[in-house]
Structure formats: C-alpha cells, structure tokens
Amino acid sequence: MSRRRFAAVAAGSLPLLVSGDALGTEARWRVEGAGEAGPGGAGDAGMWVASVANRDWPSRPGLPAAEQRAELAAVLDLAVRRRLNTVVLQVRPTADALWPSRYEPWSEYLTGVQGRDPGWDPLGFAVREAHRRGLALHAWFNPYRIANHADPGRLAERHPARRNPGWVVRYGGKLYYNPGLPEVRRFVQDAMLDAVRRYPVDAVHWDDYFYPYPVAGEHFDDDAAYAAHGGGFPGRAAWRRDNTDRLVRETAARIRRLRPETRFGISPFGVWRNRSSDPAGSDTNAGVQTYDDLYADTRAWVRRRWIDHVVPQVYWHMGFDAADYATLVRWWAGTVRGTGVGLHIGEALYKAGDPAQPAAWQDPAELSRHLAFARDVPEVRGHVFFSAREVGADRIGAMNRVVDDHYPAAEPLWR
C-alpha cells in the first residue's frame, strides 16, 4: 500500500496523486538560497521513506530491533550513494509513533502490534545517524489519519481515539480525527510537536492528507462540529478550509517557538485549483483540487509565509494535456516568487517503468528531463523522489539517469 491512488478528470483518465541538532548550512533546506537553484545547479535532493504498511521501511513488522536498525541505516546509506542530501522519514503514519511518544502508541508497523515497545528509538536513531552522514532528517507526520480500517476496536486499548470516540469520523473504510474540533487540532499538534521537542529534526513535514480525498456517495460526518463551530462562515467548505488554515498557522507558530531552527514544510497534491475554477489557478484539468476537495488552501499558506518550504507532488509527465509537468512547475514558481518560501518539486519515481503508466513513464530519461527543465526555473531549489523503495530498486534506470545527468559530483552535493 502507498499513499497514492487515482482520480478521474473530465477530459479523460488522469492518474492523480491523492493519497517527508543544527547542521551546517550546506546540508539543510533553507528559507533563503537553499541549494543552487536555477541555471547551473540541480539544487537539493531528497527522498521519502514511507513506514505506512511497511512500504519502504521496515521491510515487515516484527523484525528484531537490530534488524530494524540495520535496515534503517541501509536506507540512509542509500541516500548517500544516490548523492541525495535529505531523507523525509514517516514517523507518525496512523496516529501512532516511531518514538516513545507521551501521547500516542508505538506504531504497529514496527512490531505488528500497536502499542508494543520495539525495544529501541527509531526516530532518535534516524536523526543521529542521518546527521552523522551529513544528511538532513525531515520528520513526516500525518495529522488526522487514525487507521486504514474502520474498526476502533482494533486500535491499542489506550489509544486516544478509543478514549475519545467523539473525535473520530468513519469515512471511506478508514478512521480519521475530526478537523472541525478545536480539541482535536490541539491534540494532534501536541502529539507531533512531542517529537520536535525531543529531537533536533531539521524539518516537520506533512503530505497531502488534511480532510480526506472524496469518496463517491459518502458524507464526511462533521455535522455536529459544524453546528457547534461553523457559525459566521458562508458555508461548510469555508469553515473546513478555516479549520485546516488554523492547523497550519498554529503549528507553524509553535514550531518557531519550540525549536526555531526546525523548518516547516508541506507536500500538497500538485493542483491547487484549475484555472476554470479560479483565474489564479493553473492551466490544468485535474479531477481533484486541494482548495475545493481537501479544504486546503495551499497557495495561501505560501503567500502568507506560514510554511518555510513547499514540495508540491507534480506527479505527471512532460506534455500531459490534463496536468503538464512544466505547466505546474511554472505555476508553483510563480506562487512562491517573492515570498522566501523554498520550492522543491515532488517527483513520481514510483511511476518509472510501471507498465500501468503511460508510455512517457517507460522512458528512463523522463525524470531527467524534469530536472533539466526545472534547473532553468530560478525558484526551484531541488527535487524529492517518491520513494526509497524505488530509489533503491530503480526498475528501468531512471534514478541512475538522474544521478548521472544532474548529481555527477564525486562528493555528495552537500559537501
């Protein structure tokens, strides 16, 4: 399982992603001047490492602690070999933790049993070992997802969702915390910031899960929360967007108070709005728009400088009519221009060589063309690849081509 799935577009079938201690400045994503963006530089380079459903690491639940450590060290070594400088590690996949959290149970993806102590501290190890290798470590959290099933009885006995059933919404066969409840927003912030308080992570990273992606024929039941807290808004959609805005704004302020050197970045779905919906939108025809469907005003977060960097998931090939890679990179470049917010492009390495994907993704040079295009866009400061499994397996040599064409230095980029 991954955080990817697909949605349709009016113009046809469009695979859309719907589902990251102080170092020297050379090894960090910075608000100003990160990487050598624009002509002559490939910028920063990172990869996501997904723990949900054991996608990338650990390879399976229940491994002995020593084997889990060895596998995680191998992931970090892979980043070094590929001349990457940043690892985005998923440490809170489903309202659980890959560290000894004060708020939530140990992740089942470590031991196979949610709440069971794995006998070591994966996040502490990851930060220490990443920094020892000269890598930045970004801690990737999912704010509202509780479980990829709909049975609260399967959660750990003292799980906060079982102790507070009024916080929980069943939707699409899964469990979510209700973003419309102020106490939920405070709790998920506390749970995530527990890791920031304990560890010198280089960034807090969120992906594209805010309100869940739409499921046909289903209603996300936040009726009671809307009745209690939605007064003064023109409609439920505006209220939901305000709930998401509050989560982002409040978390940003708390990170800056708690650990000012830690950055805050978000990796949204690549389309904010289509131009047909909003003159400020991109010239795309996407079946999902974050503003309308996820109640996430990602453009506003950049323009208001609530976040330090943005990593839009631009997971389509060059020349794709409904959502062209170049069109979206230019749109995001215009969005960040003048804000000081760093722009890094999320790249769909997982599509390269997948026989289910269009012909463009069977060409090992497709991703290299992405980087060649982006290096002439001054606002682009680097790229992040989904995900570690594909960075290692490199099914058709697409990652080798990227490294050969864009990261050829004998020493890693951050040296």
What does this protein structure show overall?
The chain is α/β, with parallel strands linked by helices. Helices cover 31% and strands 13% of the residues. The protein is built from 13 helices and 11 strands. Strands 1-2-3-7-8-9-10-11 form an 8-stranded parallel barrel, surrounded by 6 helices. Strands 4-6-5 form a 3-stranded antiparallel sheet, with no helix packed on it. Helix 5 packs parallel to helix 7 (236-258). The longest helix has 23 residues, at 236-258. It starts with 43 loop residues before the first strand and ends in a 9-residue tail after the last helix.
Notable characteristics:
415 residues; single chain; eight-stranded parallel β-barrel; disordered N terminus; disordered C terminus
Secondary structure topology:
Elements: E1 44-49, H1 65-81, E2 86-92, H2 108-111, H3 122-132, E3 136-141, E4 145-147, H4 160-163, E5 168-171, E6 174-177, H5 182-198, E7 203-206, H6 223-229, H7 236-258, E8 263-266, H8 290-294, H9 298-303, E9 309-310, H10 325-336, E10 342-347, H11 366-374, E11 380-385, H12 388-393, H13 398-406
Parallel strand pairs: 1-2, 1-11, 2-3, 3-7, 7-8, 8-9, 9-10, 10-11
Antiparallel strand pairs: 4-6, 5-6
Helix pairs in contact: 1-3, 5-7, 11-13
